[in-house]
C-alpha cells in the first residue's frame, strides 16, 4: 500500500504551532489574576495622565515624564473606553504574548521549530515576564518592539527584505522608552559576528541612524527632566546578580539548569539550523550571535553608564530577557541532538518507500521516499514538559505577583480608607503633594473633600500633582481651620524630614505648631500611608510650641520623586 500524499500545509503548521502555542500560554498567564484590586504608584500615574485630553498630555510632557509620552498617548483611547485595572494592563498582556510569539519565531528561523517552541514557553514561564505583563506601564510594549525589531533584523540580513520596517519598529520602540536604543548595540554585534556583507551593514546603519536621529529631541527633553530618576542608586554587583536570576530563575535547580544549558549553546561548534531557512549566498546570523548580545549588552552598557550617572533599573532592560530563553532552548536542543545521534539508526527513523509516475494513457505509479521521525515529536513534547516543570518550581513567585504584596503600595486601598473616614467638606492636606496621586487615580474616595492646599488642578496646570497655593496663602487657609485631616507619606511625619519646598515646609510647620492629634485618636495606616485627624491646639500651648521650635538645620536628602 502506497503512503498518502503529504498535506500541503504541513510545513506551515510545523512553523505556526510552535509560534502560536507560546502566545496562547503567555496570554493565559497574563490574564490570570489581572485584576488585583488596586493600582500602585507608577500605574496610578498612567491612569491619571492617560485620562487627560491630548493637549493636556502634551503640555505635561514639556515639564515631566516625556520619556513615557508616547505610551500615555497610546493609552489615552484605551482608558477612554474603560478606565479600570483590566483595561490598564491589557495592552501589556497582549504585548507580552506577542513577545513570546516573536521569540518563538526567532527560534524557529534560527534553529528549528522545537527550539522556538521551548524558547517561547520559557519566556512565558519566567516570573519577570509575567510581572511586567501585568503592569500598566510601557515596559512590556518595549520588549515586544525590541524582539520584533530583532526578528526583522534577521530577515533583512538575509538580503531579501527591506530595512524600512526594521527602522520603523526601532524608532517607535525607542520613542516608547529611549533606553531601548541600547538594543542597537546588540544588533551591531550580531551583524559583525555574522560577517554581514557591506550592503547589509549599510542598510542597517541607515535604519539605525534614522531611529537615533528621531530620538534626539526626546533625549534632549528627558535630559532636562533627569531629576525624576535622582532616587536611583549607583548599581553594584548585586544588581547584575539579581538580573541574572530574574532572567534564568531564582537560586535553585531551575537557575543552574538554565545556566548550564545556556553555556552549552555557547560552546564552539555549529548549532542545528532551521530546515525552513531559505538557501542563498547571504550569511544569516546564528542563534547564539543574536541571543547573547541581546541578553547581555544592553544591561551591561546601562550598568556601566550608571556608575557615572545612575539610571539603572531592571525594568529598563526588560527587553533583554528575550535572549535568555533562546540560549537555554538552543542548549537543550544541542544536547538532545547529540543524544539522538548516539542512538542506533533504527531507533531514530522509520522509512516508507513508493513510486509515482504519470503515463500517456493515464496510468499512475508512485515513486519517492518519506522518512518519519517520531523521535522529534517525542523530543518536542519532552522539552515542553520540562518547561512546565520549571514553571511549577516558580509557581509561588507567579502567585505572589498576582497579589498586592509585590507592589510598594495600593492606592485603591488608600482611596477606600479615605471614603470610609472622610466626609464631604472635610479639609485635607497631602503631605507632601505627591500623596495626591491616590486622589487623582482613585477620585471616588475623595469626592466632596476640600483639598486645602490645591490652587490649580493637575490636568489644568500641566503637572502630575497640581499646583499648590503659595506659602503665605496656605498658612492663612490652615490657620482658619479647627479640624484638619492629614494624608502623609511614610517619611513625612518623621522628624528628620525637612522639605525644601516652602509650601511643604508650611504644611509641616503649621501642623506641628498649631494642631494636635484629635482625641480620641483617629489615625489609620494603610500601605505605608498615614491618615490622621488633627484639631486646633489651645492658644497658650501654641505660643509655647512656637517659642521652643528649633531652627531648621541642613535639610536631609529629598525623598523619592515621581517615577520615571
Itemize the secondary structure elements and their pairings.
Blueprint: H1 10-31, H2 41-50, H3 54-61, H4 69-81, H5 85-110, H6 113-125, H7 127-133, H8 139-157, H9 164-176, H10 183-193, H11 198-224, H12 237-248, H13 253-265, H14 287-305, H15 323-341, H16 345-348, E1 350-358, E2 364-372, H17 374-393, H18 395-401, H19 411-421, E3 427-431, H20 437-441, E4 450-451, E5 454-456, H21 458-461, E6 467-468, H22 471-479, E7 483-488, H23 502-514, E8 515-517, E9 523-526, E10 529-536, H24 539-548
Parallel strand pairs: 3-4, 3-7
Antiparallel strand pairs: 1-2, 5-6, 7-10, 8-10, 9-10
Question: Could you characterize the architecture of this molecule?
Answer:
It is a single chain. With 564 residues, this protein is an alpha+beta fold. It is built from 24 helices and ten strands. It has helices at residues 10-31, 41-50, 54-61, 69-81, 85-110, 113-125, 127-133, 139-157, 164-176, 183-193, 198-224, 237-248, 253-265, 287-305, 323-341, 345-348, 374-393, 395-401, 411-421, 437-441, 458-461, 471-479, 502-514, 539-548, and strands at residues 350-358, 364-372, 427-431, 450-451, 454-456, 467-468, 483-488, 515-517, 523-526, 529-536. The strands form three sheets. Strands 3, 4, 7, 8, 9 and 10 form a six-stranded mixed β-sheet that branches. A hairpin with a 2-residue loop joins strand 9 (523-526) and strand 10. Helix 5 (85-110) runs parallel beside helix 15 (323-341). The radius of gyration is 29 Å and the shape is elongated.
Amino acid at each position: 500500500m502506497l503512503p498518502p500524499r503529504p498535506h500541503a500545509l504541513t510545513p506551515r503548521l510545523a512553523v505556526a504551532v510552535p509560534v502560536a502555542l507560546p502566545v496562547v500560554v503567555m496570554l493565559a498567564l497574563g490574564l490570570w489574576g489581572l485584576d488585583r484590586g488596586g493600582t500602585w504608584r507608577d500605574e496610578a500615574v498612567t491612569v491619571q495622565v492617560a485620562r487627560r485630553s491630548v493637549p493636556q498630555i502634551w503640555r505635561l510632557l514639556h515639564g515631566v515624564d516625556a520619556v513615557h509620552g508616547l505610551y500615555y498617548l497610546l493609552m489615552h483611547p484605551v482608558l477612554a473606553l474603560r478606565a479600570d485595572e483590566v483595561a490598564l494592563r491589557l495592552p501589556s498582556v497582549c504585548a507580552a504574548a506577542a513577545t513570546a510569539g516573536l521569540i518563538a519565531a526567532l527560534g524557529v528561523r534560527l534553529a528549528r521549530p522545537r527550539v522556538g517552541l521551548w524558547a517561547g514557553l520559557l519566556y512565558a514561564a519566567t516570573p519577570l515576564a509575567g510581572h511586567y505583563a501585568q503592569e500598566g506601564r510601557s515596559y512590556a510594549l518595549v520588549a515586544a518592539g525590541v524582539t520584533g525589531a530583532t526578528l526583522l533584523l534577521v530577515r533583512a540580513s538575509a538580503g531579501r527584505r527591506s530595512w524600512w520596517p526594521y527602522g520603523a519598529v526601532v524608532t517607535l520602540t525607542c520613542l516608547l522608552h529611549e533606553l531601548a536604543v541600547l538594543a542597537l548595540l546588540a544588533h551591531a554585534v550580531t551583524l559583525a559576528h555574522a560577517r554581514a556583507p557591506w550592503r547589509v551593514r549599510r542598510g542597517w546603519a541607515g535604519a539605525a541612524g534614522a531611529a537615533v536621529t528621531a530620538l534626539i529631541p526626546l533625549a534632549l527633553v528627558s535630559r532636562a527632566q533627569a531629576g525624576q530618576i535622582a532616587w536611583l542608586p549607583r548599581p553594584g554587583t548585586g544588581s547584575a546578580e539579581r538580573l541574572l536570576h530574574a532572567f534564568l530563575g531564582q537560586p535553585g535547580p531551575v537557575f543552574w539548569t538554565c545556566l548550564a544549558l545556556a553555556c552549552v549553546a555557547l560552546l564552539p561548534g555549529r548549532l542545528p539550523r532551521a530546515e525552513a531557512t531559505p538557501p542563498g549566498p547571504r550569511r544569516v546570523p546564528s542563534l547564539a550571535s543574536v541571543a547573547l548580545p541581546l541578553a547581555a549588552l544592553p544591561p551591561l552598557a546601562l550598568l556601566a553608564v550608571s556608575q557615572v550617572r545612575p539610571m539603572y533599573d531592571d525594568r529598563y532592560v526588560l527587553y533583554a530577557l528575550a535572549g535568555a530563553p533562546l540560549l537555554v532552548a538552543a542548549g537543550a536542543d544541542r544536547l538532545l541532538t547529540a543524544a539522538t545521534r548516539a542512538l542506533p539508526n533504527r531507533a531514530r527513523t522509520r522509512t516508507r518507500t513508493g513510486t509515482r509516475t504519470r503515463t500517456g494513457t493515464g496510468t499512475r505509479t508512485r515513486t519517492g521516499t518519506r522518512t518519519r521521525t517520531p523521535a522529534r515529536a517525542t523530543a518536542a513534547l519532552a522539552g515542553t514538559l520540562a518547561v512546565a516543570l520549571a514553571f511549577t518550581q516558580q509557581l509561588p513567585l507567579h502567585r505572589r505577583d498576582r497579589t498586592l504584596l509585590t507592589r510598594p503600595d495600593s492606592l485603591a486601598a488608600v482611596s477606600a480608607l479615605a471614603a470610609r473616614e472622610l466626609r464631604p467638606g472635610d479639609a485635607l492636606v497631602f503631605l507632601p503633594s505627591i500623596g495626591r496621586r491616590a486622589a487623582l487615580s482613585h477620585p471616588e474616595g475623595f469626592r466632596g473633600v476640600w483639598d486645602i492646599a490645591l490652587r490649580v488642578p493637575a490636568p489644568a496646570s500641566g503637572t502630575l500633582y497640581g499646583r499648590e497655593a503659595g506659602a503665605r496663602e496656605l498658612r492663612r487657609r490652615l490657620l482658619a481651620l479647627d479640624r484638619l485631616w492629614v494624608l502623609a507619606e511614610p517619611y513625612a511625619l518623621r522628624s528628620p524630614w525637612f522639605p525644601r519646598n516652602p509650601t511643604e515646609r508650611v504644611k509641616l510647620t503649621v501642623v506641628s505648631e498649631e494642631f494636635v492629634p484629635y482625641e480620641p485618636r483617629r489615625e489609620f495606616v494603610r500601605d505605608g500611608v498615614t491618615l490622621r485627624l488633627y484639631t486646633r491646639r489651645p492658644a497658650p500651648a501654641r505660643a509655647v510650641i512656637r517659642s521652643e521650635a528649633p531652627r531648621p538645620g541642613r535639610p536631609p536628602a529629598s525623598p523619592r520623586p515621581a517615577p520615571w
